Structures are given as structure tokens and as C-alpha cells.
Amino acid sequence: MTVAVFFGCSFIAFGPAFALFIFTIARDPLRVIILIAGAFFWLLSLLLSSLVWFIAMKASNDKDQQLQRGLLIFGVMFSVLLQEVFRFAYYKLLRKASEGLAALSEDERSPISVQQMAYVAGLGFGIMSGAFSMINILADSLGPGIVGIHGESQYYFLTSAFMTMAVTLLHTFWGVVFFDGCENRRWWVIAVVVALHLLVSGLTFLNPIYEGSLPPAYVILVSMAVWSFFSCGGSLQNIQQFLTCRKNDAGSEVAS
Amino acid sequence: MAENLANVLHEQLSEGFPDTHRNNSGEGADRRRVVEGVDQELNGQPPSARPSQRLESEEDEDEELTLKYGAKHVIMLFVPVTLCMVVVVATIKSVSFYTQKDGQLIYTPFPEDTETVGQRALNSILNAAIMISVIIVMTLLLVVLYKYRCYKVIHGWLIISSLLLLFFFSFIYLGEVFKTYNVGMDYITLALIIWNFGVVGMICIHWKGPLHLQQAYLIMISALMALVFIKYLPEWTAWLILAVISIYDLVAVLCPKGPLRMLVETAQERNEPIFPALIYSSTMVWLVNMADTDAESRKKPALNSTTPESQAAPSQSTQGPDDGGFTTDWELRQQETLGHMESSEETRRQVQEMPSARPPAIQSDDSEEMSVSGGGGSGLFHSQRGKASDWNWDWNTTLACFVAILIGLCLTLLLLAIFKKALPALPISITFGLVFYFATDNLVRPFMDQLALHQFYI
């Protein structure tokens, strides 16, 4: 394992999230705070779910490998559910904060919209999730060793990096869609987000058969990207205008 | 030293910030004028209603300004905390000197490598008790000095501590870094480097200097102090000291007869600008005797000869252990660095947050100091983790403590904005840091290790 692997995998895993942070979040203090608070909420959910798993593991037979694997799978599922619960709790908190901010400002409008908060919160969840999954692996990749010396896959680091990137971006999109569903009281949206999260985590149980976990995760990622784009007001027209750098037609009418 | 730094930083921040503050107050005044204009237009309003409206709108504007300042100040605290933590963690991971056990401070005389767990617990409790009483004595001493207007003594104390930190500790640090990377260096070049570093630092901190350079120096100094504490405080002692410091901070700031509260009130009565530095100073009044119990000659002999009495008389202590400048933040940070205390960042922030308990007008000045102290604390925290052992190191725990400390900082600032009076900065951050440290290390770590082993993703 070399420095090249370290840098390559860290850029694969954290490149998009880092770019999103630098270009959209770093300049606004309020967004940074919401990001860190989102990371904190994800951390809380992880803490509680690992507590449950730890208790279950200690109460059971240590030597039974199948049982331990089963408990781990249960731990993963429980953790996914708890993450979504905490996402909902964070939504409630942000709603209250947004109302407070709006009440204090002059023009009765919050300085940050719910959709922006949804994006930042989702990114907070994603960054923390990705960091917790990947950082120890990255640290190990700097040290000596041979990957897969006992017959496991050689592509451990690479697949971990790609999976981490997928999970980070997925959390961002899930955040946008989830908050949108909560805002408009569309509960089926929330159910779909939870189901997709369970699906993506469940697919990782197929590792190291990476064909079963990575391509489906990326398919879900692309579809979530499209869905979240349309749910927060994007349209094909917007894309066209963005690509051709044309101004908004409505804007030019108002000006004239 | 930290006191000195805090003082200087505060003064310089006051100089550096008036523009922004004037602009902001200008904006507020404009808004007030606009609102008043609207009031005057409402002819139907009875005259008594309009002044109250004006008052309300002014209060709302103040609140809005506070909140806007709040977010900006929180970020201004995040950056130094993060930087300090990064420096300390990087040093701990690369320079092995700071994780080697080379004796203990004279204030923690009881060793922790005993045979039974009970003996170790007892020793750490005794160590913590001694350390805390030293801190209390120094705080009271500082308050007494301030009350009787012995400003020269306080200034001298601060200058000596910053001298020690800037020259001696950085000399040791540089030496160890060179050893780690096997860099050959002659004494002449080294003397030039240390001389320039120290003198520029003294000027920046005690007089004037570019704001970013001041902040950089404060971060470096926080990191240095954290590293020193990491090295010399044993593990359980460090954790205990951290917890007790939090309680002491609560008592000292909130009780009517608490020393820090008396300091705040005295300074408010006198309406003096030195106030923020003293707040920092009082919390930082920790004398750390750098003398090794086995009298190794790594330190200057002068340090080894310090005694509590001599420390109590700063005027004679050219060689005294004047860690009077050590902010509680710093101490806490050290504790963090020494053990698995990730709360050093928190403690730092906590100390910083204390001054921010003052009205928003001063917050802009304090945030810089706070961020630096917070950074130092964070650094301590993480370095504490590092000291445990290299193979025991878990980056997840580091990250979790980092986030917990930042959130503790946010919450403390939020409480400050709500209550608008002097509040203890440490309890929330320390509690969060400790809780998250132990929880992540014992619960989350095995879970994440198992997940990584099977390559499951949550």
C-alpha cells in the first residue's frame, strides 16, 4: 500500500463532498453551523445504534460466527432506521430554528431556505458517514501490508473509496428529498427514502461480490440525483438555460 | 503566558475590530433610523406607543445583530480550534517525544503505574486534588492582585510566561522535530530561528502586529502548551482534572463569591479594557512546575527549582514556573492530550466562551481569543488521545470528539446569546467531549471495526 493509494482513495471518497463544501458552504457561517450540527446528529444516531449492537453482542455467544454476523446485520439495519429517525428530528429542529431566524429578521424571511438547509443537512450526514467509514481505512493504507494476502479481494481500498463517495452523495440527495417530503406532508417520499437506504446498506452485505453492491448503488445514486433536482425546483429548461448561459425569460420581462 | 497572550490579543483585537464594529453599528443605526421614520409616518398612533415601538425595534435589531454576529463568531471560533487540533494531532502522530513517559510534574507526584487498580485510582485522585488546589490558589492570587491594582505584577507575570513559551518550549519542540526527521542543524541557525520566532511573537502578542500573525502565534502557543501537558500528566489524573476543572469553572463563575465572578465584577466596576485578558488569565492561572521529579536536565535548572512559594511571588520568579499564562483551556487541552481526553478542544473553547459571556459588543474581540484557546483545548484533547498508544489510535474517536467539541462551542455561544451574562465555558464542552470520547472509543469503535472488516456500510 502506497502513498498513491492513500491520495487516490481519499480524493475518490471525499473529492465531491469537499468540492461541494468549498464552493457552496464554506463562505456562509450559518451553513457551516448547520453542516456541523448535521454531522453531530448523525454521530448521535451512530452512538445509539452501536450501543444497541454492543449490548446485543455482549449478551450473546462470542464464538458463534454466524450469530455474530447476524447480529451485525441487525445492527446495520437498526442503525439505518435510527439515522432516518435522527434525520427527521434534525428536520424538526431546523424548522424551529428557521422560524426563529425569520421572526428576528427585518423582512420576516429566514436568511436560509428550507431547501438549502435540507441540502446542507444531507451533506453533513453524508460527510460524517463517509468519514467514519473511510478514515481508518485510509490511515491503514499508508502503512505496510499486502491487500488480500489471505485470499480476500485486492480491490478493498478502491471499492471502499467508491462506496464511500456513493454513500456521501446519497445522503445529500436523501436529505433534500426527505425534507421536501416532510415540508409537503408527502409521507410516501419518506418511506421511499428509508427503503432505499435500507436497500443500499443491504446490498453491501454482498461484499466482496462488488458487482452486487457498487453498480446498483450508483444506479440509485443517479436516480436520487435526478429526483432531488426535480424536487427542489429544477427542470429541463433550467438545465438548458444554465448550459447556454441565457438569462431567465421571466427576469427579462420584468426588466422591460 | 496564556494570560499575557490573551491580554495582548484582546488589546490588539480591540484595535483591529473597531472598523467592523463601527460599520455594524452604523448599519444598525441606519435600520433604526428607517424604523423610526416609519413610526413617525403612523399619524394615528398615540405618542406614547411610538417610543415603545422604537424601543422594541431597537431591541429586535440588537437581537438580530447578535444572532448574525453569533454565527460569524462561531465560525471565527471554529477555525482556530480546528487548526490547533490539527497541529497537535500532527505533532503527536509524528514526533514520538511527546508520547514518551519522561517523569511527571511536581504537582502530580503520585505515579500511575501501580500494581492495583485501586492504588492507581487513589493516586490519580490525589494528583488531581493537588493540581486543582494549585489552580484555585493561583486564581485567587490573580484576583487579589487585580483587586489591589498590582497591574505591574500581573504584566510581569504574563510577559515571563510568554517568554518561556515562545523561546524555551518552541526550542524543545523544534529540537524534537529535527530529531524525528533526522535533520542536521547547527546551533547558529537554530539560535537565529528561535530568536526571530520568539521576538516577533512577543511583539505580536504584547504590542501590535498583523491580525493573522497574532492568531497564528496564539494557535502555535496553544499547541505547544497542550503538548507539554500531554507529556507530563498521567492518564487518569488528566481525566479527573478535566472533570473537576469543569465543576470548578461552574462554581467560580456562577457563585456570588466565586473568584472569577469577583474578577468580572471588579473589572466591570472599573470599566477597564484589561478585563478580558484577566478573565482569561484568571482561568489560566495554573502554575505548572516543569521540574521533572527525577531531575532530568532536559529543562533549564531554573525551572527545576521552582516551588509553590516562589511561584506565588512572580516578581522574583525569573525562573519560576510561570504558567500563570496557562488558560484553563490550555490546561484542559493538555489533559485532553494526555489521556484520551478529546475535550481539550472543548475546554479551550469553554475558556474562550467565558469572555464571550460579555455583551455582544465585546464578542468580536473575544472570539479570536476564544477560538485560539478553543483550538488549544481541542489540540490537547486529541493529543491526549494520541498519547494512549499508537496502535490504540482511532481516527473515528478523534473525529467524534472534534465534532462534539465544536457543537459544545456552538451551544455555549448560544447560551451566551440568550443569557447575556458571564457563563462558564467549560462544562458543556467538557461534558460533550468526555461523553463522546468514551462512548466512541468503547461502543462505536468495535462496531465500525466489524463493519469495515466485512465491508458493510450503514
UniProtKB/TrEMBL annotation, chain A:
It comes from the Eukaryota. InterPro entries: Aph-1 (IPR009294). It is a multi-pass membrane protein. Signal peptide: none annotated. It is found in: Membrane. Coiled coil: none annotated. The chain crosses the membrane at residues 6-25, 32-55, 67-86, 117-135, 155-179, 186-210, 216-236. Keywords: Membrane, Notch signaling pathway, Transmembrane, Transmembrane helix. Pfam families: Aph-1. Belongs to the APH-1 family. Component of the gamma-secretase complex. Potential subunit of the gamma-secretase complex, an endoprotease complex that catalyzes the intramembrane cleavage of integral proteins such as Notch receptors. This is Gamma-secretase subunit APH-1. It comes from Huso huso.
UniProtKB/TrEMBL annotation, chain B:
Residues 303-320 have a biased composition (Polar residues). It comes from the Eukaryota. It comes from Huso huso. It is a multi-pass membrane protein. Keywords: Cell membrane, Cell projection, Endoplasmic reticulum, Golgi apparatus, Hydrolase, Membrane, Notch signaling pathway, Protease, Synapse, Transmembrane, Transmembrane helix. It is an enzyme of class 3 (hydrolase). Its main location: membrane. Pfam families: Presenilin. This is Presenilin. It is found in: Cell membrane; Cell projection, Axon; Cytoplasmic granule; Endoplasmic reticulum membrane. The PAL motif is required for normal active site conformation. Its EC number is 3.4.23.-. Residues 18-36, 342-351 have a biased composition (Basic and acidic residues). Residues 1-60, 297-379 are annotated as: Disordered. The chain crosses the membrane at residues 74-92, 125-146, 153-175, 187-205, 212-230, 236-255, 395-419, 425-444. Homodimer. Probable subunit of the gamma-secretase complex, an endoprotease complex that catalyzes the intramembrane cleavage of integral membrane proteins such as Notch receptors. Belongs to the peptidase A22A family.
